[in-house]
Amino acid sequence: MTYCLGIKTRDGLIGLSDGRITSGSQLSSARKVTMVGSDGDRFFIMNSGLRSVRDKTLAYLRRDMSKRRGESYSTMLDAVSAFTACLRQVATEDRESLEASKLHFNLHAIIGGQLAEDREPYMFLVYPEGNWIEVDERTPYLSIGATAYGKPILDRALTYQTDMQTALKLAYLSFDSTRFSTNDVGFPIDMVSYHAEKRTWRESHYDYDDLGEQRQWWNRNLTELARRMPDGPWVETLVPESLRTRNPISE
User: Fold this and answer.
1) Which InterPro entries match (predicted)?
2) CA pair distance 222, 173, nearest whole angstrom
3) Can you tell me whether residue 210 is helix, strand or coil?
């Protein structure tokens, strides 16, 4: 399992992927976000699913790009179309043998960036069949892998108007919620950001100890917020009077 998250806001794009790889009882780490292209004509691809399918699809994509003699795709639509063509070719070649070995052809991908002829950044979620959907302003994120645990905080707090600094915090908290609730997702994490106005990319890599302050702050304040929440009607009927405490907000 894995956790990959792509966010699109007014400021640009954010990508986060965990680095944990599990195979039976074996545990290792690997980078799950790939930057494709060069100079300003770059975009990211994050994947969940069989690593062999991922590697072969990316190899076919790089081969397709090399045939273009240094020219990048003109738009992100061109880029996602090229990726899905490579994915379908791999499916034609490998799906039958994989399923015969009881392995599912289950590669999902999040692809995001802004190329020369794009008027703004774009981000897509690609399914194993090669079809895709595009992120929109109403739901400004896409996630793949173990998506259930990190979704609530994004649905509650993230909007298209969220500034990049806050969106990065929400991306981390979404991952941390997932990491806390499942053994198949964990550190290290890779994060990328794209600033739309300046058309620049930034990348970073973090391990468990790098984010100790943020993790401890969240745990401490989440508990405190629950304590300070206004009492509900259940207090009168479910909590013995001897156990009731005064709500700090009403003091």
Assistant:
1) Ntn_hydrolases_N, Proteasome_sua/b, UCP009120_prtse
2) 11
3) helix
